[in-house]
Every structure is written in C-alpha cells, then in structure tokens.
Amino acid sequence: MLDQTLRQAILTLRDAGHGTRAIAHALEISRGAVKAVLRSGGASPPPLERSEKAESHRDDILALYTSCKGNLVRVHEELLAQKIVTLSYPALTAFCRKHGIGYEPPKPSGQYHFKPGQEMQHDTSPHDAHIGGALRRVQTASLVPCYSRSLFFQFYPRFTRFDCKVFLTDGVQYFGGACGDCMIDNTHVVVLRGTGKAMVPVPEMEAFARRLGFRFIAHEKGDANRSARVERPFHFIENNFLAGRTFTDFADLNRQARAWCDKANAKFRRALHASSVELFAAERPALRPLPAWIPEVYALHQRIVDLEGYIHVDGHIYSVPYQLVGKAVEVRETKDKVRIFIGPREVAVHDKAIATAKQRHTLAEHRPPRGHFAAQVTPLPEERELADAGAPFAEYAVTLKKRAGSRWPVALRRLAQMRRDYPVAPLLVAIETAAQYGLYDLDRLERMILRNVATAYFIIPADREDPDQDLPDEG
Q1: Which residues of 188-222 are buried (b: 16+ CB within 10 A; e: fewer)?
Q2: What is the distance of C-alpha 2 from the center of its chain?
Q3: What was the pLDDT predicted at 380?
C-alpha cells in the first residue's frame, strides 16, 4: 500500500496536467496503483478492512484468560483442546495486544535534569565476586552525583547502618564534598517510616547526614526510574569490573574498585559529550563543603573478657591484655580496626577480620610470659582479721570461704561483724559447735549465738519466788 506522501505526489502531478503513464514513470510505480489513487481522490490511505479470526471468540478468550490466570500459553492450549477456534499462538498474542487483553502499552519514559551539586543518588545491589579463591556474594554500594554522573562504589560482606555510614563518609571524601540531597530507595537502613515524600529517616542517620551537609530523600514506591543515575552503573560494574577479576580479600577488592572508578570516570561518554571528570570540574564548586574534622565512624559494643583473655566481635575472636580477664570493656568497631577501651583509655587495637570463617587474632604482648603467674589477690581486711583471731575463727573462716562460692567476701564480712558484736564466750561455743557438725549457714550460726547469749546473761535468780516483786508499780 502506498503511503500518504506518495499518494499526495500522485494527486499533485495530476493537478499539474500529467497523465497516468507519466506519473507512473516519474514515481516508478505501476499505472494501476496511480489509477487506484486517482479513483479514491484522497491522499489518506484507505482503512485496512480485514476480519480477525478470533474476533467472534473474544468472550471465550476473556473467560479462559481469567481461568488460566493470565497465562496465554494455557489459553492457546485450551482453545485448541476445546476446539473453540484454531489459530496460531502469535495470532492469539497479536489479538490480545490489539484489544488490550492482559497488555498495557508502554508508557513513555521521561528524563530528569539536575543542576550541579543538587542531588546525589545512593543504592546497593548484590553481586558475586571471586575473593580468596572462592565465589562469594557481596553487597555493592554505589554513590553517583547526578549532574556529572561520576561513579564511586565499594563492596561489603553485608550492608548495615554502620556500613552505610562508613560508605557515605568515604564517598563524600572521594568527591571532596556532598550534594544537597541524597536519593535512596526506601531502604530500612535509613528509613524509619513512610515512603517517598513522606519518608522519615532514622534520627541517627538524619544526624549523620546533617553533619556531612546533606539530607536523605526517597523516591516514590515503584518509581525506580527516579534513581536511574545510580541503578544503571550496576550492570556496568557486574559485567566489566567484576568480570574475570580475582581478589585476595575485601581490602584488595575495594582498592581495585577505587582505582577502577578513577579510570571509568576519565573515559569520554558519548551520551554526555564529555567525560565525567570534565563535568565534575563544573560540579565541584557547587558541592557542600565537608566539615574541618570528620570523626571516624564506629559501632559500639560492650563485652566482658572471657577466662582465656579474649572478646568476641562479629563472630571473630580478639585478644586483650590478660590482666583484664573478667572485666567489662568497650569495643569500637571501625572500618578496618577493632579498638578496645577501658573507660577513656585504649588498651588494644586489632586489624578487623572480614571473612566468613571464624578467625582468632592474638597479640603476643597480651599473653603472660612463660612461667609467669598473675599476682596473688590481696586478701580482704576481714579475712586478715579472722586469720589473726586464731582458733576457732581462722579454721571456720577458711572452710566458710570454700563453702560460700562466689559470695565468700560477703560471708567473711558478716562473720567478722559477728565477732565484733557478740560476747566472746557464747560466740566461741557457737562456732565450735557449728564446726563440729559442719554448719556453715550464718543465719543458723547467729541463732545459736543468740541462744547462748540468752542463757548466759539473762538468768533469773532461783531464790526469787515472785519474778515481778522488785518491778516498780505501773501508773
């Protein structure tokens, strides 16, 4: 069928007085085609009148589409099995597309324009990397300023709120500043509640962003194109940077990633008519300046040193000075270090282990020298007091300490207090009797002492017939 432009040319030549043969020769078409256009008298092509084989079975197709849960392959099978109509699968799909059965025409995509320093976008994506001779699933975190489309990305074994703060700190330092807004994809790492414009960030992350000079914003749910600046490079990272490369550990992986970012940002890009480095030169003055001092990001843990002189952090084991066994310590986990504090004082520093298998890190200075034993614990004053009192107090105190378990200091303090409070004779009798029968319950011992005291000091004279005869009259 001739298009509208060619049909209009035929009519124009006819009006100019040219004959059918001349028009056909000039336009290199058949005379029959020229005569058909002249008979129609219009430049618009006639509508295509063609009946569709499936048109009369539209209701059957709609019913099967519902019962088959939208699977057109099953719809085609049922049409043939029930002998409703015989048509090919492409004919069925073309009919469904034409009449909007299970098909929506694609919506035109728009384009977002950003001013220099207006917005940067951050997102993560899982990838597989060869690390330490094994294929391992990692989380790729990426940050892209929208105007220059410069790329910065790093890899993490998992991506928590702590890792997010570490990455964004490295990212804004890599670019030398921050854009005013940081677009995210409603991730729970940053979002407290809400989505899109109603998103409320976690106070911790909001304070972190404010310190670096930007704020978190989120795109509407389902509007992934809003963050396309950072979504698009993930395919490039997976199929270019990670393809064919092996890495010894995460430190080596992230070093190579940073070097690759420098190389990729310097390449000329046809879509931008420049390189990202050239565009970033114009964006750099518009970035928010970083504070004069950026504190190191760390995760805080509270631990108690075990009997072997170690603490456990993230499944890995780190040594501390052996003198701290049983004491509570504060652990600060940074990007690549594990720092251990007692109050304000740092007592140990380890390189952070990033691996799936549990690792044990021991520093030689944290172990006691061979043949050296810890200094003896200074005895309590009450323990020395009972030992100096001699028998039977010293022997009873030694056995009481063994029987009382971890609460032996409380028991010795109470025994020493009894020795100070009660008379010596009833106390000695009670302790000798208790030791003879293996009684080390101090409540029971105290009842025995009080019974002896009552017997020895509060005896009524036998020659007194009326116990109340010497009492003064009441009232």
Answers
A1: ebbbeeebeeebebbeebeebbeebbbebbbbeee
A2: 62
A3: 80
CA–CA dist 372, 139 (Å, integer): 47
Q: Are residues 124 and 222 in the same domain?
A: yes
Tell me the per-residue pLDDT of 91-120, one tens digit each, with 9 for 90 and over: 999 989 888 888 887 777 777 889 999 999
pTM of the shown model: 0.63
Q: What is the pLDDT of residues 309-340, one digit of tens each?
A: 999 999 899 999 998 988 999 999 999 999 99
CA 115 to chain centre: 31
Q: Report yes or no on 109 lying in a domain.
A: no
Greatest CA span in the chain, whole angstroms? 166
- Ramachandran bin of 438, using left for φ above 0, alpha for ψ from -120 to 50, beta for the remaining angles: left
Residue-wise pLDDT tens digits, 251-279: 999 999 999 999 999 999 998 899 999 99
Look at residues 393, 387, 374 and name the one whose alpha carbon lies nearest to residue 326: 374
Is residue 9 domain-shared with residue 135, that is, in the same domain?
no
The number of CA neighbours under 13 Å toward the Cβ of 88 is 3
- For residue 475, pLDDT over 50 is answered with no
Give the residue from 264, 286, 308 where a domain finishes. 286
DSSP 224-259: GGGGHHHHTHHHHIIIIISTT-EESSHHHHHHHHHH
First-residue to last-residue Cα distance in the chain = 137
Non-local (6+) Cβ contacts of 418 within 8 A are 427, 442, 445, 446, 449
Same-domain check for residues 345 and 386: no
Q: Based on the domain organization, do 198 and 280 belong to the same domain?
A: yes
Residue 457, pLDDT > 90, answer no
